[in-house]
Design a protein that fits this description.
alpha/beta, nine-stranded mixed β-sheet, 34 helices, about 25% strand, elongated
Length: about 900
Amino acid sequence: MLRFVIMIMIKTAIIINRFGSFNCLKYVKNSHLIIVHLMFFCSSFVVTLPATALTSKPIPAPITLRVALDDNYPPYVIRREDGSLEGYLVDEWKLWEKKTGVHVKLLASNWNVAQKNMVDGNADIIDTIFLTPERARILDFMPTYAQIPVNIYTDIRLVGIGNLVSLHGFQVGVKAGDACANKLIENGITNLIPFAGYEELVQASITMKIHVFCMDEPPANYLIFQAHAEKQIHMAFPLYVGEFHRAVHKGDTVTLALAERGFAAVTPNELKALQKKWMGTSLSNPFQRNIQYGLSIAIIIILCLTAFIFILRTLVKKRTADLLSTRNKLLATLDALPDLMFELGLDGHYYDYHSPRTDLLAAPAEVFLGKTLFDVLPLNVAQAALSTLQQAHETGYSSGEYKLDLPQGERWFEFTVSRKSTSQDQEPRFIVLSRDITERRQVEERIQYLAHFDMLTGLPNRTELNDHSNIAFSHAKRSHENLAIMFLDLDYFKDINDTLGHSVGDALLITLSARIKLALREEDTVSRLGGDEFIFLLPGANATGAAQVAQKMLDHISEPYQIGLHELSITASIGIAIYPDDGNDMEMLSKNADVAMYRAKNEGRNGYRFFTQEMQILLSRNMQLLTALRNALKLDQLQVYYQPQISMQNGKLVGMEALLRWQHPEFGAVPPSEFIPIAESSGLILSIGEWVLRTAVKQAKTWQEAGLAHIVLAVNLSAVQFRHLDLPDLVSRVLNETELSPEYLELELTESTTMQDPPGAIAVMNNLHQRGVRMSIDDFGTGYSSLSYLKKFKVYKLKIDQSFVRDISTDPEDKAIVVAIISLATSLGMQTIAEGVETIEQFNFLRENGCNEVQGFYYSKPLPAEKFELFVRNAMAISVSF
């Protein structure tokens, strides 16, 4: 009886396959087909019975069974370095071959190739495949034999990836043809990067070409640990659980029955042995479960024969509902996609389309359906599209971009073409997905623009300038012509930003840039380097032409600007260098023009200067000094000298000023007036200034401990040091380290330094004053101090600049200035000290007008520590006479 039932079921499957395209409702109307349909429904379970239960008349089988599968899916399939295959499935198919006597040929390859072999008919069965709606249309699937977790993996340093939503914005690596790619796309994750195999996917993550990838768990664990990347890659979250199937070509019931029969013959003990060998733990046995299902269904068949009409109608109704539900879900999924979808023939005929965005169609749907690409699209776009169809026909896939002028404006589209599976007698069909990428193209164009042009003014940036200069220099060298480079810097532009705000400054730069372009020829180039610096490239311009352009530029710039409610005026300083006299390339000429620009600033601003050989010599000297100064501290070339400060009231030594000196083995004694500006501009003044402070304070403490007089140490601060946020803490650290009381330290600031940022200067002075450190203003009278700020400064002494002291014996104006400074200091409760005192006449004048202290060659020049100590001891031994 059992054999008879099985034979009926197999015959039924063949009949149903032949009539599978008929509407299910027809079976209800034709009673002679009802039994056939019911038997087909039940046969899907019974075919899993063991081979011993089958009819004695075997189903015709192929001599060799060709099995397509992935060649690198540990532990199921592993391809060794010598090309041989190992793994759970390799051994299982060997068992199958032994059970059936049918030779098995394993076509293990890249997964995309494995699927292609199956589609092209080069394989009879495909293994390790997930069931998807697309695959179910062309394949018949065997029952599940393994459940495979599919996970999202990320770089261990990447946090915040915990669900599908968090994947948006990342490029996700996938194995080409893998089912997880479809899963990601269904959930809106479309930025996928396909790789040929899992090993390439893991290696791409290790080398950080990608940071996120999707992969089945078994091969992921194997390959990650094999590559020793377990501390670099981790599993972020599980995506879903897939089910392994084996599948045959649609309608190939013979191969399906043969495969099921062979696997049903594999015993549980044999499966446990494979499990222990390759996975260490037992696999659940799907074959045993299917046998149980088959036995249960065999009983149900008897019941079905008595109530087949009711069951049949129920099945038809449920199947119809399922189909309708599946169709609705598919339509909802398609409607959620932002892409246009078309079905075209190889000749460019439109057969179908789907898209919720009909406004992106080149023509209304009722117009183009049934027509060709050339009837709807512009000629160039149609030709390109037809070419991609041909490429997809040859390779299975192609892509490209095109532009359309639609009623809403110019739009860019990115499209992909894939070949649709068709029967042998049907013309080729292709699915085309077209996505609107206009916004992306606009962003790319914006990025490209910003890579070559200044965002604020729209002028070319340095990259664009270099491109222009390469052309200009090549032409100048070939034609032996001149070429001018001008470097322009606005005068006091920082004051506008500081007082009126950066928005006003930016508006001024925009207006100024427009004026600058009016002063140039079409072939000239102006580039904004940043801030208020501009550089000009003037092809063919000699010195005369460059001077004319520079003066014209200065005239345009100096005209008043109306920025909002503010009427502003500004000037500029320009430096000019000429090819080939001042340099042979852009780098040298721009550097020399920059040097000339600074000369223009130093000589009064609002003008232009040409680069000269003298500047070159000075520049070379400065470069040499800068190089030498970087190593001066390490080579012990710097020294601190001390100059005594004498009280005019009693002639006693009351203080000393620490002065920096540099003795170089090649350059000799380098004047502070030469190397201090270099140290300030290079930033070396911070380390040098700290060394001077630490050395002088330590020396003062040493002299105190040696019993010398407790006198005040004065140390100069540069503007760079004074503006450094760490200055108050640095002073406190040095005093604490040396244990020198703060009352014996006096810090000198130049008057110009205090007036650069008076509110900031007041804050720093207050901070130092609270720490007990004295402050004095050096070179007073040269920096145009504001009395409103001076009275707020926490200073106790004004130092009269030596430029006023030098001629007080003969110059009435210097006399008046010195008297005024002394009177001002007295009225503000401050002390005064005059520097540069060299004669008795200067000394007497200062004493008569109430100056408190003096220093200068009249008493002593600056001395090294050992000679100054001798001077102090002599001063202590005898009284200094006036």
